[in-house]
Design goal:
By secondary structure, the chain is an alpha+beta fold. The protein has 2 domains: 3-74; 80-130, no CATH class. 51% of the residues lie in helices and 19% in strands. The protein contains 3 helices and 6 strands. It has helices spanning 3-16, 24-74, 112-117; strands at residues 80-83, 88-91, 94-100, 107-111, 119-121, 128-130. A hairpin with a 2-residue loop joins strand 2 and strand 3. Helix 1 (3-16) runs antiparallel to helix 2. The chain is rod-shaped and about 105 Å long.
């Protein structure tokens, strides 16, 4: 039995016992049964609201899943690649290198053209930075 049914049973039991509701014991039992009835109704209402919210959250989750599926389908995974070991990004045909300014510590992105030029200025502190395009020896 659910809570509202149990509360209704207790109310029926109280009515069937023919208890004098004018005596203190009768008043107490009647008040307890009334509180149980109200509590049972409130709990039933809350359960209905929770069920409704749960259904709506399921619908929202389904919509988010559909959006994610659309975004993943639109994304071409071969457009970019990051190689942690070399501090370089590969955006299709263009490779971007990250270098850190020795003066201010600013991380600067350089493309092949900037490396071939051999030098640039740090956009943060203005320090002249020179590059050697030869592979380091290990």
């Amino acid at each position: 039995m659910k809570l509202p049914e149990q509360a209704a049973y207790l109310k029926g039991l109280l009515d069937g016992l023919d208890i004098d509701r004018e005596k203190p014991e009768g008043k107490l039992l009647a008040a307890i049964v009334d509180v149980l009835n109200e509590t049972a109704e409130t709990v039933a209402d809350i359960e209905d609201v929770v069920d409704t919210i749960s259904d709506e959250l399921d619908e929202i989750e389904d919509a988010i899943d559909e959006i994610e599926d659309c975004l993943i389908e639109d994304e071409d995974e071969d457009d970019y690649d990051f190689d942690d070991d070399d501090d370089e990004f590969d955006f299709g045909d263009e490779t971007i290198y990250e270098v850190k300014c020795p003066t201010c510590g600013e991380v600067i992105d350089l493309d092949e053209e900037m490396l071939e030029a051999g030098a640039t200025k740090c956009p943060n502190c203005g320090e002249d930075l020179e590059f050697d395009d030869e592979e380091p020896e290990m």
